């Protein structure tokens, strides 16, 4: 294990692997410490089309294209008593398709790619603590399953350790859960389920339940169907007590979804059910002297719009560009940190509003579940909204007179279809509009924007 490194990356998931690959390509000494041995299981199998440009930037597109994952060309919704499909081949989208992935395989591909780019990847190594030199993160203690332990010094550290949050949750302790999306998911894997009828090829299926909650259905290339139930914690706990088990409440919920009953008529559940809870949190700071929080270590969002992997890789790209520019003395560190924190936070907040707007749209909003998905006053007051963020919503030209009710205004606009779009769903407002890369001076943040050629770096807007 090296005693010193330029950049220490904690965690080998999509955020850590993206950052490590991009930084190693620039010749920095990058050490990535991953607690598990890959491949390892992870949920979050449905990827957005906006992810493909990120794969291009890190040079991993061909790896993913050639692996055999299901090609996802759209989504199918059975929500609020209506059914509709959404294709990704509409004008203005970053790609006409994405992928449904087995995450153990997808994440392993990215980790191997980081290693091939020159990152020193060590698996089976657990980071214990980050130690400080004054106010700056400076060294990390680590240990292995074979009893080895030591300390590694670094110039920068990226905490990409997921929901566990080595630095963000355990030490800094400034993770704040939103009142909204305090949900529970229970999911398993089915075999012998046919494709969704009437849906685009490889589509994810999203189905709401009449009394609250919803299911995802994701076809995977190993011939399984990932099928998950999402509902609020109160309803989940009451149903588990009433039915006696997680599987019983899961199957009872399935019985209330006719579309899935038909789809699973000849299918069988072949795995034990997994459960996770509390979907929405955000750190008060995404970076500080010597450190960057990336992916789920920084923030986590309800899975309704499949945004997790994109946010992870997006933050890995932003962190690598920031550290590269600091190292090359193109941008001073405080300015780079302001860019990272603001840009990443805006991406998260946009998606938070988008998911909340989707929950509001259709019938049943007066049921307990739908009320629980409404941003509270505390949630709204904690959003750090700026004009540059609000103006990306099509049709919002001048919000100077609406600052006191900006969240409500944006929510209303998100529930109004764009010209030429149907009234179902978000009516043309989608993740591709909310997750654009800030690659031109018009989208500068803190006076900086993202350059991609010949490598990711920060550029001055003037």
Your description of this structure?
The protein is 32% helix and 26% strand. The chain is an alpha+beta fold and 462 residues long. Strands 1, 2, 7, 8, 9, 10, 19 and 20 form an 8-stranded mixed β-sheet that branches. Strands 4, 5, 12, 13, 14, 15, 16 and 17 form an 8-stranded mixed β-sheet that branches. A 3-stranded antiparallel β-sheet has the order 11-18-21. The longest helix has 29 residues, at 333-361. The two termini are 43 Å apart. The model has no long low-confidence stretch (mean pLDDT 90).
Task: Describe the SSE topology.
Blueprint: E1 4-10, H1 14-25, E2 30-34, H2 52-58, H3 61-65, E3 70-72, E4 74-79, E5 82-87, E6 98-100, H4 103-116, E7 120-123, E8 125-133, E9 136-144, E10 149-159, H5 168-172, E11 175-177, E12 183-191, E13 204-208, E14 214-219, E15 224-232, H6 233-243, H7 246-255, H8 258-263, E16 268-269, E17 274-277, E18 281-283, E19 287-288, E20 291-293, E21 299-300, H9 308-327, H10 333-361, H11 368-372, H12 377-382, H13 387-390, H14 406-414, H15 431-434, E22 448-451, E23 457-460
Parallel strand pairs: 1-2, 1-10, 2-7, 4-13, 10-20
Antiparallel strand pairs: 3-6, 4-5, 8-9, 9-10, 11-18, 12-15, 12-16, 12-17, 13-14, 14-15, 18-21, 19-20, 22-23
Helix pairs in contact: 1-4, 1-9, 9-10, 10-14
């Amino acid at each position: 294990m090296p005693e010193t490194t330029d950049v220490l990356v904690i965690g080998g998931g999509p955020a850590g692997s993206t950052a490590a690959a991009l930084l190693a390509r620039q010749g920095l000494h990058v050490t990535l410490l991953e607690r598990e041995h890959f491949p390892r299981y992870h949920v979050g199998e449905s990827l957005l089309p906006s992810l493909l440009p990120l794969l291009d930037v890190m040079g991993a597109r061909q790896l993913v294209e050639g692996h055999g994952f299901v090609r996802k060309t759209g989504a199918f919704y059975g929500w609020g008593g209506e059914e509709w499909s959404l294709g990704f081949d509409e004008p203005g989208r970053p790609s006409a398709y994405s992928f449904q992935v087995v995450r153990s395989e997808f994440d392993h591909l990215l980790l191997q790619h980081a290693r091939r780019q020159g990152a020193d990847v060590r698996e089976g190594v657990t980071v214990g603590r980050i130690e400080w030199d004054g106010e700056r993160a400076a060294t990390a203690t680590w240990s292995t399953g074979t009893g080895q332990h030591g300390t590694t010094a670094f110039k920068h550290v990226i905490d990409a350790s997921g929901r566990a949050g080595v630095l963000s949750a355990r030490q800094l302790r400034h993770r704040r859960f939103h009142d909204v999306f305090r949900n529970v998911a229970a999911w398993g894997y089915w075999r012998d389920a046919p494709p969704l009828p009437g849906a685009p090829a490889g589509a994810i299926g999203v189905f709401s339940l009449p009394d609250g909650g919803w299911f995802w259905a994701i076809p995977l290339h190993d011939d399984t169907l990932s099928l998950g139930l999402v509902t609020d914690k109160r309803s989940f706990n009451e149903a588990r007590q009433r039915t006696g088990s997680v599987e019983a409440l899961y199957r009872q919920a399935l019985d209330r979804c006719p579309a899935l009953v038909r789809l699973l008529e000849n299918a069988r559940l072949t795995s034990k059910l997994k459960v996770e809870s509390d979907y929405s949190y955000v750190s008060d700071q995404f970076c500080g002297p010597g450190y960057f929080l990336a992916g789920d270590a920084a923030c986590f969002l309800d899975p309704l719009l499949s945004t997790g992997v994109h946010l992870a890789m997006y933050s890995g790209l932003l962190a690598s560009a920031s550290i590269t520019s600091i190292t090359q003395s193109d941008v001073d560190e405080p300015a780079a940190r302001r860019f990272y924190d603001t840009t990443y936070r805006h991406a998260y907040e946009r998606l938070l509003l988008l998911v909340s707007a989707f929950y509001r749209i259709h019938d049943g909003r007066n049921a307990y579940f739908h009320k629980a998905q409404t941003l509270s006053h505390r949630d709204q007051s904690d959003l750090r909204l700026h004009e540059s963020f609000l103006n990306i919503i099509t049709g919002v030209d001048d919000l100077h007179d609406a600052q006191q009710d900006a969240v409500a205004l944006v929510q209303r606009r998100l529930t109004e279809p764009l010209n030429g779009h149907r009234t179902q769903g978000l009516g043309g407002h989608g993740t591709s509009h909310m997750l654009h890369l800030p690659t031109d001076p018009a989208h500068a943040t803190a006076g900086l924007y993202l350059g991609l050629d010949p490598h990711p770096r920060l550029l001055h807007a003037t």
